[in-house]
Design goal:
With 188 residues, this protein is mostly helical. The protein has a domain at 10-68 and 129-174. The chain is built from four helices and six strands. It has a two-stranded antiparallel ribbon with strand order 1-2. It is a multi-pass membrane protein. It is found in: Membrane. It comes from Zea mays.
Length: 188
């Protein structure tokens, strides 16, 4: 049957820490400097980003924990039905696909994962960041997680760009003030 390694690994801890860091810096550093947390716009932006970060974290947890889809142990292709798309024939030799490690036949697009030590249905890849294969049963939730992560990253980047532009324009205004310019300092 073959199992998976433990759930808490350094890459998983790193992803959770990165999500937490981006959340904290966006909600407690960028939004307060941009709009202020005492304004309705600031609270709305903090709440929206909190919901986005929670959705990102929840879909990540599901992608980590959900089984990617295993080949049923009793799977045997119907060799008598030539029209059936349930079996796939190897390119060389014309034999049915058989996993030597799991000791059973494999349906189309099923591959053996050497990390998970089992055959996975419609396996895309083994992802170290979720410590799991991306396959038939968790492909959609993995893509939803990636979508939430990209949207949250752009949101945070936009907030920090606005804060940077706001701070740099304030710095330019301060430097243009006659009492704060270097030349006026030496003239007085």
């Amino acid at each position: 049957m073959g199992g998976r390694p433990g759930y808490l690994t350094l890459p998983i801890f790193s992803v959770v820490a990165a999500i937490g860091y981006v959340y904290y810096t966006t909600v407690f550093v960028a939004v307060p400097r941009w709009l202020g947390l005492s304004t309705a716009a600031g609270v709305a932006n903090a709440a929206a980003f909190t919901a986005l970060a929670a959705a990102c974290l929840a879909t990540y947890a599901v992608a980590v924990r959900r089984d990617p889809g295993r080949v049923p142990p009793g799977f045997v292709p119907d060799v008598e039905d030539a029209e059936s798309t349930v079996h796939e024939i190897k390119r060389k030799g014309g034999d049915l696909r058989y996993c030597q490690k799991c000791c059973h036949y494999k349906p189309p697009r099923a591959h053996h994962c050497r990390v998970c030590k089992r055959c996975v249905l419609k396996m895309d890849h083994h992802c170290i960041w979720i410590n799991n294969c991306v396959g038939h049963e968790n492909y959609k939730i993995f893509l939803v997680f990636v979508l939430y992560a990209v949207v949250a990253s752009f949101y945070a980047l936009g907030a920090f760009c606005i804060v940077f532009l706001k701070m740099s324009s304030q710095a330019a205004i301060l430097l243009e003030h006659p009492l704060l310019s270097v030349g006026s300092f030496f003239l007085h």
